[in-house]
Amino acid sequence: MTTLLNNLTDLHQHLGSSSTPHFLWELAHEQGIKVSEKDYGRFIDTITIKNTASQKQYHHLFDVTQQIQSSPYAVEKAVHNAISYSYRKANVTMIEIRLNPMRRNKGGEHDLDKIILAACVGLKKATLEYPVKAGIIIETDRRFPKEYNEIIVNKAILFKSFGVVGIDLSGQESKDFKIAHLEKTYKKAKEAGLGLTFHTGETSSTDEMDEVVRRINPNRIGHGIKVIKNKKLMKILSDKKIVLEICPSSNLAIKIVDSWDEIKEIINILKENKILFTINSDCPTLINTNIKKEFQRLLDHKILTEEDIVEVKKIAEKASFINLKK
Question: Which domain CATH number covers 313?
Fold first, then answer.
């Protein structure tokens, strides 16, 4: 057990939920940003989930943290803090931090290139100070028009040599969003050597997940737990070796699943159908977790064995975009 939970890999961690309350509090005041609460204790309540929250509340918390992180200075500090904190608190030695730069440039007030460069600088500083391999995943958004997402992907390609390792699609569901709009631009990113991941199969249907697999053919899928409802799709994921980024406590916090028993059922079905998966923190400071705690909870609930954890750690390391063959 001493070494089992050392040298961990976290492939699914959002920058917007990777900053501790005191870090955000100080960062806001350093920049002269007006916070919603003058009292620090009440401020903590506005940026954390105590037990559970609705998806609307969850996304609102991201709006608050992203506002504080919306400058090149803040992004650099936040990325550095996320990587160093994960190493110190959870023995994470390989990590991918994801962020949407267009949700941090104040509607064009800050140059998009400077936001991404700042993220890369924060990463480089952290990896010089700690024995960690790290990469940046740039997020597109369901709520953005096609043209905005194309700009974001092109920027990700531009900064590939600076530490950007992949792209992602996240954000609340939107009736105007079409997966087809991303097909060509994601193909371009893959050809440029970036890894592809895609939030789907968490709140969205398996129909969307099926279309993502057919049109985008990602290396990994963010969450993807609804795949257990579709036997045919499970076979496709298994055959293609598409890796699921499972985030247990996050799914519980926003009521995607109801209990650890349900988590156990999901993971057992994934194992039975030979679907590769990793365990991740997703939004660590938002729900008071980290990758080490996630593994410990899975052990405590008898969902994973020590042998399972060894295997999952190997899968995560191999699936990391940091290790993509160039």
Answer: 3.20.20.140
